[in-house]
Amino acid sequence: MTAPNNLDQCAELLNQSGDYQVLAKLQPQTEFNAPSPGGTHKVCVIDTETTGLDTDKCEIIELGYQIIEFDSQGNFYQVLASKNFLNEPDGEISAEITKVTGITAEDVAGHAIPWQEVEQDMADVSLCVAHNAGFDRPVVERYNQAFVNKIWGCSASQISWMEVADVGSRSQEMLCWKVGQFFYGAHRALDDVQALSKLLSCKVTAEQVTVFSFLLKAVRLSKSMVKATGAPFDIKDALRSRGYRWNVGERVWQKVIDDSKLQDELGWLIEHQTPNPDVIKLKATDTFSVRAR
Questions:
Q1: Number of neighbours of residue 145 by Cβ within 10 angstroms
Q2: pLDDT averaged over consecutive 10-residue blocks of the chain (293 residues)?
Q3: Where in the sequence of the chain do the CATH 3.30.420.10 domains occur?
Q4: Could you tell me which residues are beta bridge partners of residue 258?
Q5: Residues 193, 29, 45: CA angle, nearest 5 degrees
Q6: Pick the CATH number of 223-292 from 3.30.70, 1.10.3470, 3.40.50, 1.10.20
Q7: SS3 assignment, position 229
Q8: What integer pLDDT is reported at residue 2 of this predicted model?
Q9: Is 27-171+185-220 a domain of CATH 3.30.420.10?
Q10: Which residues contact 134 (CB under 8 A, 6 or more apart)?
């Protein structure tokens, strides 16, 4: 067996050659920086594995999260909690879900998420972060009120990865490779959470600030829901390309936008024969919830 030091030397030689890129296997961290002198907050990095993709109906089969201390500049410190829970659903776990997650009905049989413990962990969390908050938030909110009045951030949609790291993909696995230069066992809840925590702690741009600092800036911006009421049918493709989605119940195209971009968006709508859009101011705790649909 090759000694660890020799493996490190081999990896370094391969990287230096310019012909290879060697990725390190993720080593979960319990501490990202030396203890802070004070002034820290708590973020919950969270992920769910579910029985499907319909956030109104799917059931959680696995919940993973880490609670980490952070400061206002976006630096991570100590991991205060790192937990993973399996949960037996009322319905079936399809073969497709098992293929993606590796979770079978036998794995979750007799398991239940201890929601009282989760509530205690979440009590003084300032922010929840998921790589697809538009999915994870509505799901966990159906299960427990502890998530309803939290501010949420999405590392997939609220970070301009091309701008901060020159990466066009929003896939977490791809970002871990291109930004963090590591790989991990994807599609189990806590594995994904630990990988995302590491990714958010990576230093990027010439200023060498954390990825998480860019997410914090996005989360702090006030937001509104814009409904393109009365938009002509022939601009539907343009609306879709600008990030609008079709609200079936209200039969209107809509999207959430930062208030700093609101006037430009309203101007674009007016130019495209939509002079009377509805604008609904969102509370900080509503982003990515069903209340922002």
A1: 10
A2: 75 90 93 85 98 97 98 96 98 96 97 98 97 97 97 97 96 97 90 98 97 97 96 97 94 95 97 96 94 83
A3: 27-171+185-220
A4: 223
A5: 25
A6: 3.30.70
A7: coil
A8: 56
A9: yes
A10: 154, 157, 288
